[in-house]
Amino acid sequence: MPRPSTGTPNVDWTDPDCPVARTLDLVGDRWSLLVVRDAMDGARSFTEFQRRTGIARNILSDRLRKLSAHGLLAQQTAPTGRRLEYVLTDRGRDLFPVLLTLRQWGERHAFDPGEPHSVLVDERGVRVPDLTPTGAHGAPLAADSTHVRKTGASR
């Protein structure tokens, strides 16, 4: 039976049945997620992305093209009408919980105790609380309380 289209052009999936592998095939390199991060933080132009990330022009061009081709970014005319800018699509904004989880993991494990780092705050300036996945009944989920049901596996 043919697989439904994901809206992503010409991707050779590393592991076609695994959502984690497919996601990594689309955005699993360092630069793609940093571009999405900066788009969430208001970057719109090629120059802004380059300044914020320090990424080489050729790599940035490639990532912007890839993220646009896969529907995470869209190009629109800037308010000045003189150039194009990049904006997140709904698909791109849906990566917010992923980036939030990576950020919170980094806050816990990528800094020495007391080492300064940026902090994500809400619209009132209050630190965003830690994200904790919960099951259907509200209980916290963890790696040892979940498992993957493989494609075609019986229920």
From TrEMBL:
Keywords: DNA-binding, Transcription, Transcription regulation. Residues 130-155 are annotated as: Disordered. Residues 18-114 form the HTH hxlR-type domain. The keyword Transcription applies. The keyword Transcription regulation applies. It holds the Pfam family HxlR. GO terms for molecular function: DNA binding. InterPro entries: ArsR-like_HTH, HTH_HxlR, WH-like_DNA-bd_sf, WH_DNA-bd_sf. PANTHER family: TRANSCRIPTIONAL REGULATOR, MARR FAMILY (PTHR33204), TRANSCRIPTIONAL REGULATORY PROTEIN (PTHR33204:SF18). This is Helix-turn-helix transcriptional regulator. It comes from Streptomyces odorifer.
